[in-house]
Structures are given as structure tokens and as C-alpha cells.
């Protein structure tokens, strides 16, 4: 059992400097070349065995302890978002239209801070610690790319832990939840084929805009009338494209949407039910359709035993008063691809220190209270030193 006490001031300062550097140089999913090279260089300098380009730009660093123990994986995601930053800070993004607006810069910096502590106290390490720096969390499934590349088998990973900074919670609060934590996220892509014509003669056309409108309203019955009210689900149509000018009925309309759920059964029903509504609306108007349901991220579900273990560790490391029960989030997380395969726990670290760090994730003014970084370093280092011997 290793109490880390404070993270040394030089490590904290370094983590903040790394986070600011990454924030200035954000990279989109599967394009994290500079970030990955920086991570690999740091890990090598600290004495980790480094493997690059796992799942395109993923980087893995391995440190083996002196005593026997499990092989645990600690994960950080590296990608930024296609957002133009609106913060006027010295470390603002230097890449137009790209921004670390979700805190992944902080995730990378914290895991590198933990790496520094692991290296310094290497002789106290048991088992094997696998640091996983993952590409493309934002919608493109970098975790799946790493899983498909065999990252878990290759390094013999037996347990996995990950964190997300959270502007919804005060700085330094660790949030934990057993079972489903983040929702599943799937995409729908629809083309409604009608028959174009003159806007003044709708009876000679099949109007795909009318059909799309009817579908957009009717599809909400799937959640409100066909799914158990106690089982959360969301269908959102996020894009509608059709037509060119006032007086022409176009031939087709395309719709894009997202579907969220917390329960595998609910998720499994969504595709069929949404298509049934679409089919009915199209048939009643004489339109045809193409429907695609793309399964993207599974539910991120925390293993109950692992979560109880991480909670006890957090209470010991940072104090009971700073550990809370986290609410479920309708957002999605591709850490789920790891958590589907090995017992895992994903937790939140609050980073809201006041108005400047209170913006929601993915906002052009999103920023973190950097005092949260120390908490994340401490949690990840505590897991590295404790979990190989003591995690269930
Ligand atoms: Ni994120």
C-alpha cells in the first residue's frame, strides 16, 4: 500500500507546462503525430519500453516492477476537436480551427506526470504498468483501433483504468460510478427518395422535405412511447439536407442523427424501431428510403469490484470528502472498447475552479482549472503502485 502524499512540485510544474504545450499544438484524431512523438520521447527518457503506431498514432509505454503482480493499463486519449478556440490565453491553440476543447491535453499531461513518478520510484513497483496513449477518442474510435491492433493481448493487459477531466465538477473531486456510466452512441444516416417537381404542383411530386419533416416528429415516439421510461434513450436528428430554392420540390432529403442508450437491450431495439417509423412515414407518402444504423461506441460500464477498489484507493489518497458518486452521462466514451474486454474503471476528475473553467466540454471557451492536474497525476500514480498487487 503506497501513499504518495503530495506530487513533488517539479512534477506538477512539468505537467502544467506539458499541458500548455499540447494545448497550443492540438491535433485531430489519428493525426496526433507531434503529440505521439512527444509522448514517446518522454517515455523513453524515463526508461519505459515504448511501442509506437499501435492503432495509427497510439503509443504504449511499459514499465515492469521488481515484484510479481498483475499487468494494468492506464489510458489517456490524445486528440483535439475541429473547433476554433475563443480563449485569449497565452497558451491558446496555434492551429486555426483545431482546439483541445475536451481536456485531452490534460489527460496526456497527467499520465506523463504519473510516468515520471513511476520512473522515480521504480523499485517500489510490482507487476507491470502499461501506459496507453490513445488516438481519436472523439467519434472515430481510436480505442477500437488499438484493441483491433491487439494492444490488450500483446501487453497482457488484465485491468484497465482511465479518467476524464470534468468541468461539471469542482476542481480535484473524483467521481465514480459502478455499472453503466457513459451511454452508447450510434449514428443513423437516412436518405428519403421522393419525386421532384414544381413547388406549385405538389400533387405531381412526392415531396421528400414533407416526408422528412413528418419522420423527424414521428421518430420521437420511439423514446417517448416505445422504450421503458426508466431506461434513458435519446434520438437526435442533427443534420437535414434537401432542396436548393423556394419553388422547387427536390428529389431527395438526407438526415443524419445520433442515438444514445444505457442498456444493451434498449440499444438493440433502436435500429428496428427507428426504421419502422421511417418505413411507415415513407409508405404513407409514396417515398422510398435508404436507412443505415452505424453502431459506434458501446455503453461504458464500470466493473463493480474495480470501481469499489478505485473508490477506496481514492478515499485513501485524496480524502473521502473529495470522492463522490458520479451521475450517468448521455455522452459516450470509447474507453468502453477496453472495458468490454477486461475488468475496468473509468472515473472523472473535476476541473471547474470558477467561471473561466466552467464552460461545457466542446465549447470554444472550454478551459480547465490546472490545479486539477495534480489530482489526476496522484490517482494514476496511486493505481500504478497499488493496483498490480491489490486490485481485485
Ligand atoms: Ni473527451
Description of the molecule:
The protein is an alpha/beta fold and 392 residues long. The protein has 2 domains: 9-181 and 301-390, Aminopeptidase; 184-297, Alpha-Beta Plaits, CATH 3.30.70.360. The protein contains 11 helices and 16 strands. The protein has helices at residues 9-24, 33-45, 104-120, 142-148, 151-154, 208-218, 220-226, 264-285, 304-318, 336-339, 372-390; strands at 49-54, 58-64, 67-77, 126-134, 159-170, 174-176, 179-182, 184-193, 197-198, 233-242, 248-249, 252-261, 288-297, 300-302, 323-325, 344-352. It has an 8-stranded mixed sheet, with helices on both faces. Helix 6 runs antiparallel to helix 8 and helix 9 (304-318) packs across helix 11 (372-390). It starts with 8 loop residues before the first helix and ends with a helix. The mean pLDDT is 96.
How do you describe this structure in short?
This protein is an alpha/beta fold and about 400 residues long. It contains 11 helices and 16 strands.
Q: What is the H-and-E element order?
A: HHEEEHEHHEEEEEHHEEEHEEHEHEH
Mean pLDDT: 96
CATH topology of the largest domain: Aminopeptidase
* CATH architecture title of the largest domain: 3-Layer(aba) Sandwich
Distance between the termini: 14 Å
Rg estimate, integer Å: 23 Å
Domain count? 2
Strand arrangement, major sheet: 1-2-4-3-5-16-6-15
Q: Helical amount among residues, as a percent range? A: 25-40%
Counted by DSSP, the helix tally is 11
Percent of residues in β-strands: 25-35%
Largest sheet: 8 strands, mixed
Q: What is the CATH top level name of the largest domain?
A: Alpha Beta
Amino acid at each position: 500500500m503506497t501513499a504518495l502524499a503530495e506530487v513533488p512540485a517539479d512534477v506538477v510544474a512539468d505537467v502544467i507546462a506539458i499541458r500548455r504545450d499540447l494545448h497550443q499544438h492540438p491535433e485531430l484524431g489519428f493525426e496526433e503525430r507531434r503529440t505521439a512523438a512527444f509522448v514517446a520521447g518522454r517515455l523513453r527518457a524515463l526508461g519505459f519500453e515504448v511501442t509506437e503506431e499501435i492503432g495509427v498514432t497510439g503509443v504504449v509505454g511499459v514499465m515492469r516492477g521488481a515484484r510479481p503482480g498483475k499487468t494494468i493499463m492506464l489510458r489517456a486519449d490524445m486528440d483535439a476537436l475541429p473547433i476554433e478556440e475563443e480563449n485569449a490565453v497565452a497558451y491558446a491553440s496555434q492551429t486555426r480551427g483545431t482546439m483541445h476543447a475536451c481536456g485531452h491535453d490534460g489527460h496526456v499531461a497527467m499520465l506523463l506526470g504519473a510516468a515520471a513518478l513511476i520512473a522515480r520510484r521504480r523499485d517500489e513497483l510490482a507487476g507491470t504498468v502499461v501506459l496507453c496513449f490513445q488516438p481519436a477518442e472523439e467519434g472515430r474510435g481510436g480505442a477500437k483501433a488499438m484493441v483491433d491492433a491487439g494492444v490488450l493481448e500483446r501487453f497482457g493487459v488484465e485491468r484497465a483504468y482511465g479518467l476524464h477531466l470534468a468541468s461539471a465538477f469542482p476542481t480535484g473531486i473524483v467521481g465514480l460510478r459502478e455499472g453503466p456510466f457513459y451511454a452508447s452512441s450510434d449514428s443513423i444516416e437516412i436518405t428519403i427518395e421522393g419525386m421532384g417537381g414544381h413547388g406549385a404542383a405538389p400533387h405531381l411530386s412526392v415531396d421528400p422535405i414533407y416526408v422528412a419533416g413528418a419522420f423527424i416528429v414521428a421518430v420521437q415516439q420511439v423514446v417517448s412511447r416505445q422504450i421503458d421510461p426508466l431506461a434513458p434513450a435519446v434520438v437526435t436528428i442533427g443534420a437535414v439536407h434537401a432542396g436548393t430554392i423556394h419553388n422547387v420540390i427536390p428529389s431527395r432529403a438526407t438526415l443524419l442523427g445520433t442515438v444514445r442508450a444505457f442498456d444493451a437491450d434498449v440499444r438493440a431495439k433502436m435500429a428496428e424501431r427507428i426504421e419502422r417509423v421511417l418505413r411507415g412515414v415513407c409508405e404513407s407518402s409514396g417515398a422510398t428510403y435508404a436507412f443505415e444504423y452505424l453502431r459506434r461506441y458501446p455503453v461504458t460500464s464500470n466493473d463493480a469490484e474495480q470501481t469499489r477498489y478505485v473508490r477506496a484507493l481514492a478515499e485513501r489518497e485524496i480524502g473521502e470528502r473529495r470522492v463522490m458518486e458520479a451521475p450517468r452521462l448521455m455522452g459516450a466514451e470509447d474507453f468502453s472498447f477496453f472495458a468490454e474486454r477486461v475488468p475496468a474503471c473509468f472515473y472523472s476528475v473535476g476541473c471547474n475552479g470558477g467561471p473561466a473553467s466552467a464552460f461545457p466540454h466542446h465549447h470554444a471557451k472550454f478551459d480547465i482549472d490546472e490545479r486539477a492536474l495534480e489530482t489526476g497525476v496522484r490517482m494514476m500514480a496511486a493505481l500504478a503502485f497499488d493496483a498490480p498487487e491489490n486490485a481485485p
